[in-house]
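Exam revision sheet. Question 4 asks you to relate a sequence to its structure. Input first:
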Amino acid sequence: MANELIHASQGTTLTQAEFEAVGLHVCNSQATGDLIYASSATQLTRLGIGSTNAILTVIGGVPTWQSTLAGLTLTSPTINGTIATIGLTLPAVTLGGAVNANSQLVTNLYSIAADGTNIMSLYANQASNNAAFRIYTTGATPNFTNTRRLEIRGGLDTVTAEWLATTQVGLVLGGNMTVTGYAFDAGAVDVQVNTTGNQRGLVISNVQDSQTGATLKLIHNSASIANTDRPALIDIYARDGAGALIQMAYQRWNYTNVGNGTEVVDLIWALTNAGAVVSSMSLTGGGALNVLNSYYVASTKVVGARVVDARCDDVINSGDATTDGVIDSLRDAMITHGLIAAA
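Answer key, structure tokens:
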């Protein structure tokens, strides 16, 4: 039978030297590196040497050489060198030390969970402003140039976080944010600041000594302005008696002349009266102040609606030329300034 253990042929009798010789018992087709195993309860069989890097495993109750490992449990193994394979699948792994990716790409990562202290630390192992941690989103083929979303970089003293083409939802600040000359771009919608405390809103603080303090700058950055355009508007909204949010007042600036070097801007104040917002007062660029109704000083009306009276153009005849002259000049002044008028 092939590969079985046989006796060497020594003739009809054996000397002691022949009986003790190494070659007395050999396997059929025996070669260097072969193994002997019990193929049954009564039979010894030769297992030929495996190929280079082959692994001795058991299949069907007998030993066999294999080129791969399957179904094994490795307890506390020490692996050195490089694992050259494609499609290695690992179950849950508990690391006992650092993992060095050696500048290689890790793909299809589902999530990274923090430890029991709820702290996850990510390190860029450099002490310079070029060190960065980046988050990308990619399609089927990675194209990092156009899909970077977040970059964090910095040295030992400062750090910079940069969002690219990213919509932030529910961002909560735990400290000051320094924009360093950059702008918040809301596009075609409003930027809204919500507060809940009494008399809480938008505060602009300036700490510059010996110069102009806090400044609110409204810029109408239009390349083609026209008459009646509004370079700036401050709107006041509140709830009406029915609970609807409506406009209650506004302060508006209007162009009345947009010629180069001859520009004129008027200012209008509008307030709610009898349930409607009306233009209560205006100031022209030339300094003319127009009050809708009356002008009061210390609760006393000094300017109000024009008095229309037929007596305004009566002939003055007091019998004294000087008195008549004074009365006539006062009447002319009041007519000129729109305080009185004849019927």
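Marking note for examiners. Residues 120-171 form one domain.
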